Amino acid sequence: MAFVNSSPRFCGIRTFMRMPFQSTPEGADVAVVGVPFDSGTSYRPGTRFGPAALREASTILKPYCSVLDADINEMLKVVDCGDIDTIPGYMEESLDAIRDGLIPLFHSGATPVILGGDHSISLGSLRAAHAVHGPVALVHFDAHSDTISGYYGKPYNHGTPFYWALKEGLISPEHSTQIGIRGPLYSRDALSWPKSQGLRIVMGEELHRRGMEPIIAEVLKRVGDRPAFLSFDIDFLDATAAPGTGTPEVEGFTTYEALTMVRAICSQLNMTGMDLVEVLPDKDPSGITALAGASVAHAFMASLASRKMQHHTR
Fold first, then answer.
1. Contact 267/307 with Cβ under 8 angstroms?
2. What is the pLDDT of residues 121-138, one digit of tens each?
3. pLDDT, tens digit (0-9, with 9 covering 90-100), for 184-228
4. Model pTM?
5. What angle do CA 52, 57, 62 make, to 5 degrees?
6. Domain residue spans of the chain
């Protein structure tokens, strides 16, 4: 706290929330790591600059979450472990680098908070999580299901990670939920295959119509006590709230709805990690998209702090 009070928030090297930089996750409860990669993008590129923008936006965030009555710094040791080096233009090699870079974080006992990058990085993240935890329950906020088998004759891009995660057994579909899927689709049966695998897909219209509470309850019931992984694509938010993204969609959700659901879900589950993807700062000079993304990561960490506090008081 002394550092926070003695140094302006715009000073210093840009780590997430001005947490200490540490090259390894040793002794940490949470390890923030950037994955500056956007070679999986199919429309607007530039999310390779997402981690830097998210760190920049996060300098305004403070550790206490009044909604959960949880102080991140009191309950957790958070470190920023820098970035994983990827290879622009080389999908499979970069996915291997992401997996290999994250496995030590998962093994360490720290909870990774992964800053993307386009959504293709989630396949590397889930391969790493699976290597340590086995199949995880996916909690996925997005406008797009990302369960297409391939694009342009190739298997991997930001529209395919959860197809391959299902195929490779990285996630447990009967315990997993996608939330907020909306917008025009390629065909009437575009979502038939993931649904046939047991994946629950909550369309955006359903979430708007039913409201947050029943969806939160359903997600919690589906996951149960299984290890879970949060993947949050910033285009879950409406294009008015998150213009800086590669494939924006209208008819979306507010930051209030996003943070409310993340806190309500993640504070009750055994979360093994999260990724925050698809922030494209060049399309948003105002910075509201990066601030929204950093705030989602903050809500996740506050949820971890709240859960740890709950266990200590039992």
1. yes
2. 999 999 999 999 999 999
3. 999 999 999 999 999 999 999 999 999 999 999 999 999 999 999
4. 0.96
5. 130
6. 18-312
CB 231 within 8 A of CB 122: yes
- Residue 193 · residue 173 · CB < 8 Å: no
Cβ–Cβ < 8 Å for 233, 277: yes
Distant-in-sequence, close-in-space partners of 210: CB < 8 Å, separation ≥ 6: none
Inter-residue contact 84 to 102 (CB < 8 Å): yes
Tell me which CATH code domain 18-312 carries: 3.40.800.10
Phi-psi region of 16 (alpha: psi -120 to 50; beta: other; left: phi over 0): beta
Rg of the chain taking only CA atoms, in angstroms:
18
Strand, helix or coil at 54?
Answer: helix
Which sign does the torsion angle of CA 279, 282, 283, 288 carry? Answer: positive
Give residue 54's identity as a one-letter amino acid code: L
CA angle at residue 186 from 185 to 192, to 5 degrees?
Answer: 80
